[in-house]
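Entry 12.
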Amino acid sequence: MVAEPGRARYARRARMRARANAAVTPTEMVVLQLVARGLSYKEVAAVRGVALKTVDNQMQRLFAKFSVHSRGELVAHVLARRIVALRGLSA
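Predicted 3D structure (tokens):
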């Protein structure tokens, strides 16, 4: 039996909403802190010792969790809500 296209789409959207409502993982928090400090995706990947695609995937999940569409929006959102603090950052 072939799944109905509408039903599959509904299930996929439900999974995406569930993921978006999940708490930020410790790994995602590290990525958030590094990005908030101004590191590029490539620099974050180098610091964490992971592939660039891994960082990109983590950022896409963070965009969904915080309902934002850009890196700048994400950083502004987490700083304004004090999810990430930039203490100890030298200018």
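Annotation: The longest helix spans residues 5-20. DSSP finds five helices and no strands in the chain.
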